[in-house]
Amino acid sequence: MWKGRFSQPTSELVQRYGESVSFDRRLYAHDIRGSIAQSKALLKTGIVTAEEQDMIERGLLGIKADIEGGRFEWKESLEDVHMNIESELTKRIGAAGAKLHTARSRNDQIALDVRLYCRDEADQVMALIQALQRALIECAERNQQAVIPGYTHLQRGQPVLFAHHLLAYVEMLARDVQRVADARRRLNVMPLGSGALAGSTILLDREFIARELDFPAITQNSMDAVSDRDFAAELLFAIALCGVHLSRLSEDIILWASAEFGFITLSDAHTTGSSLMPQKKNPDVAELTRGKSGRLVGNLMALLTLLKGLPMTYNRDMQEDKEPLFDSIDTIKAALAVFAEMICGMGVRAERTAAAAGDPMLLATDLADWLVKHGVPFRQAHEVIGKLVAFSLAEKRGFAELTLPEYRQFWEGFDESVFSVLKVETALAARANPGAPSPANVAARLQYWRGVLSEA
Ligand code: ARG
Hints:
two-stranded antiparallel sheet, mainly alpha, single chain, 4 strands, 19 helices, binds arginine, elongated
């Protein structure tokens, strides 16, 4: 492609070192779509005739069909997806093919291809996140009565509905969808016409190209357009954070599936056995997902690090953006899909969760609240109940098994009505403020998400 200026061929090592076709070939459909739009713009300015444009378009569609049919021979010596397709086009249709690259550089070409790719993938990632949200909602609905302890510091805190716990992840995932949608909105700008960095003296109708490729806007600075990878970084951040959310859910699932918790069952289809210990049933899907979140964070760091030292405008370093980008997209899509399936097969061992949530200590806050409602300042109430907790532990009798005179040793005003708060059902129903886990609130939120997700 640059043979005019050079008298020596590229060293084989350099060729192998610099080639990107082994991974950027996956952009072929976007590259061809962009080239067809480019050829139409060339027709509008009279650089190619209608006949030539037709040859280019047919030629490119023929190449696309061959790639998809496994009949295309990719050549490392042609470096990247762009040169592979263009040189094959020229081989097939001659001079018309050699006109295609007029007023275009691989710098704006790759900027376009990656944006088209990110746009498509963003849509798929959002759909997969929503599918996982649906799986979580369904699991919550199947187990709507189940109560579990809510934890802080992995110490039992207060009782909550299992559904409320799952709904926390539905909220997180909704923000992930918003972040991906937001990144998509900002990347949806058409860079073609920026050339290598300073546009071209051949003026193509950029707005026309944008319409051809479904972009609502065109980039406004040619230097920015060829060197901007913000959009990829934003997408990788949204994906990394989604991965972190999946990793946290993984951790919950791994704990819940252990004998120590015993809160859930996972289906045989989504667990693995041990080659040595016959009794084992391992939550590998969750463990792998927790592990893969490291890659997602790493890919984001790789991209940010590669960008930070770059002078304007395009630098070849930027070729290194693709593998982390592709890897993150592939990884999050696979994780979301397998997670949705696993959640569909997840069951709750309600007797185990009820026993754990029945730990009387979980109602200590409710006792303190009872005192507050009877005029005791909260700090003092906290101390009174703290002493009652120590007494109950020493006596090895739960709050409900202590007698009223025993209660009165800690605060004189206790009466029989204190025993009414010592039921998990009462405690849950009393948590009725918006956002809190009363059964009525949880049911309303489940219904809300059902509505939102059925429209999505
Ligand atoms: N393979 C290159 C990349 O991904 C395409 C752009 C190459 N441009 C250049 N001037 N060498 O960045």
